[in-house]
């Protein structure tokens, strides 16, 4: 864990998430090709022998990590039923962590290796064990088809949406986590990228968890938000620096679900946003897209 704490743990999504497509304007079969094509899971770490340029003087030993969506079944682009069509989006891809390990031998020579591995959430393992895609897409499509996807996923898989853990990685209290904001973080062993278990902060957090938690200057506490498609829609939480439990938790009393991807933290303030990007099953029940900008609201 020494190398992890000394390294800069980098969060990024490799590909810009697509905005919701209007009904009947669904992604084409080229969605997951080219720059959006998935890469293979390589198994054992590979030595990196060709490095363009040089490793800067004073560069720390450690691990460079990134997470991103990497569809196991990239040829499946849409689901069609009597209810209409829903399409798989890049942001619904299976989470894959990429790690580049930087270490020095006794003579100060760099050793660089690379490894990748899927984040093995319960959803991922369910499909892996059945050797087929089970979850239907729920982000974009005809409202009635999106509702049918939620329902079908519940019946077939026991939950309305897949847990992908595909958006970012973060470190807290010496542990590494992979996360996407519809579920809890998954602890990952940085040495081999094995998925260990989901993290509910010792039973003190039971809802979605932001993809981009922020550390409080000086105290080391971790500030998170959890947005949901049912009440409470928007909850703010503060986790102790040692990761053992929540220090604070407050329902921000929002009247509807909104998709909020970021927050800000300073020494004295937590800064949370209210986006006019509404999300929820109720929208689909009313015949609207489940995720859309509200023309009645402004960002605040
Ligand atoms: Fe992000």
TrEMBL record:
UniProt: Fe cation binding residues: 212, 261
Organism of provenance: Zingiber officinale (Ginger)
Protein name: Uncharacterized protein
Cofactor(s) it depends on: Fe(2+)
Keywords: Dioxygenase, Iron, Metal-binding, Oxidoreductase
GO terms, biological process: carotene catabolic process
GO cellular component: chloroplast stroma
Cofactor binding annotation: Binds 1 Fe(2+) ion per subunit.
